[in-house]
Amino acid sequence: MATQSNRDKLIHQLENKFNDIGQDLDTHLEGLLYSEPITYWDYIKTDALLNLQLQRTTLPDEMVFIMYHQVNELLFKMILWEIEQVAHHKMLTAEFFSSRLMRISRYFDMLTSSFSIMQDGMEVDQYLKFRNTLTPASGFQSAQYRKIEFASTDLINLIDARFRETIDRNTPYEHALNHLYWQAAGKDYKTGKKSYLLSAFEEKYKNEFIVFTKEYNTINLYAKFKELPKEVQQDKKLIKAMRHYDHTVNITLVMAHYNAANHYISGDKSSGKEIEATGGSDWKKYMHPKYQKRIFFPDLWSEKELNDWGTNL
To answer: Rounded to an integer, what distance in angstroms lies between the CA atom of residue 212 and that of residue 260?
Structure first.
């Protein structure tokens, strides 16, 4: 229980707080008389959260699929929350930078290990049935994941490897976005025609992506690192955290996803035919790290490591 002196101190602090925003403390104190104590279910919004799972089929494992991806999106939101703290930090230190990177890496470690839920936690026969009701939707269309990439590195490092030499910082954002590595999953580069998977995704998020990439052009994680004093850039703990994050996202997580996808859509073994991914994406060509060499922090890897990226798996 607070002593009288502590209570007086708190009242004084509250008066200052509400005076600063032109509010009357007595009004707010009176309001407390009629407020109810907060409960766990109100704070977490449990009822709303648990009513967001709506199946489109009668197959029970579809519920696993829905909840799994909703959990992913919540983790993506946590990751973006941590990146934002680094990106907008005015007096960034190696300690703060590395601690937030390790937080993010732990979230990605959760995502990586969680693929066993998909790979071993759903019946293949059920998935191959309910997946047809999902078409043309695809996990490819996670806007939050794309924002994580934009906020992690310079845009040039996300450009399809075949087009990086033709794009620089003076390239219009819209042109650059049309040559991102994941466009390979939804575009025929011989004809330039985009699949519905990609065109619907861009119709929904393209303008938002342009605004976001402009914001993070100079404050993404890689840009923030390169702004640090040279001695801070050489901090061993920070370098280790950045390399761990880069490898975790662009190799470990990707390969866990790749293997889980391959488990379900590598083909109907009875017919020998490969099954398309939901949305019709050519997933192998853009997902495997050896093809696109997605690397957030290229200066922190040796030439051999860069050349061997994703090949020794």
So the answer is: 30
273 residue type, one letter: K
For residue 94, give the amino acid letter: A
* Phi and psi angles of residue 33, each rounded to the nearest 5 degrees, phi first: -60, -30
With bands split at pLDDT 50, 70 and 90, how would you rate the model's confidence at 273? low
CATH architecture group of domain 56-154+219-307: Up-down Bundle (1.20)
Phi-psi region of 252 (alpha: psi -120 to 50; beta: other; left: phi over 0): alpha
Q: Which helix (H) or strand (E) holds 191?
A: none
**How far is Cα 93 from Cα 227, in angstroms, rounded to an integer?**
11
**pTM of the model as a whole:** 0.88
**Distance (Å) of CA 156 to CA 81, 86, 129, 209, 293:** 23, 21, 39, 15, 12
Q: How far is CA 87 from CA 42, 92, 152, 166, 193, in A?
A: 32, 9, 9, 28, 36
**CA-based max dimension of the chain:** 80
Residues 31, 35, 41, 46, CA torsion sign: negative
Residue 63 in contact with residue 53, Cβ under 8 Å?
A: yes
- The CA distance from 127 to 130, in Å, is 5
What's the average model confidence in pLDDT over 31-47? 95
Q: Spell out the residues 6+ positions from residue 185 whose beta carbon is closer than 8 angstroms to its own.
A: 140, 197, 198, 281, 282, 283, 285, 286, 287
So where are the chain's domains?
56-154+219-307
Residue 279, pLDDT > 50, answer no
Contact between residue 261 and residue 232 where contact means Cβ atoms under 8 Å apart? no
**Cα(276)–Cα(177) distance, rounded to whole angstroms?**
25
Nearest to 113 by CA among 66, 75, 144, 148: 75
